[in-house]
Amino acid sequence: MATRAHERPEPVQEFFSIGEVCELTDLKPHVLRYWESQFRFLNPAKNRSGNRVYARREIELVLLVKHLLYDEKYTIDGARQKLDEERKGGGLKPAARVGLDVESIRLVERDLKEIAALLKGETA
Q1: DSSP 8-state symbol, 5
Q2: I want to staple 52 with a disulfide (CB 3.0 to 4.6 A). Which of 28, 44, 56, 87 is the partner?
Q3: Which residues pair with 122 in a beta bridge?
Q4: Using CA atoms in the order 50, 51, 57, 61, what is the torsion angle rounded to 10 degrees?
Q5: Is the domain 15-119 a CATH 1.10.287.600 member?
Q6: How far is CA 107 from the centre of its chain?
Q7: Long-range contacts: 68-73, Cβ < 8 Å, 24+?
Q8: How does pLDDT run across 79-97, given as a tens digit for each residue?
Q9: Residue 121, CB half-sphere, CA atoms under 13 Å: how many?
Q10: How confident is the model over 25-54, as pLDDT tens digits?
Q11: Residue 9, phi then psi, degrees to nearest 5
């Protein structure tokens, strides 16, 4: 499919509302707000209207927290301690990428199950 010379690709979104983050991370808004109170590095900026706006980096950190709590079964205190150790050792960014990778795999698996169900004639 050829694109026209005057067409420009869509700009990459840099900031996300709490609703968009909830959709991307499959978390409820109250969970995100609670995590903000428990993890000081989760501190989204607020726009002129006073609404939270999350940067991509913060979404990666949210996914890392989700991975530690839901997959690795850390407590809030344990996850906080683990993340503080990663931050002090300079490994927070690579660790956040792991959270993003795990969530990406989870979404692909879910999509594949839905496709398999459709192919079998089942409803998802």
Answers
A1: T
A2: 44
A3: none
A4: 110
A5: no
A6: 11
A7: 68/99, 71/102
A8: 999 988 888 877 676 676 7
A9: 0
A10: 999 999 999 999 999 889 999 989 999 999
A11: -65, 155
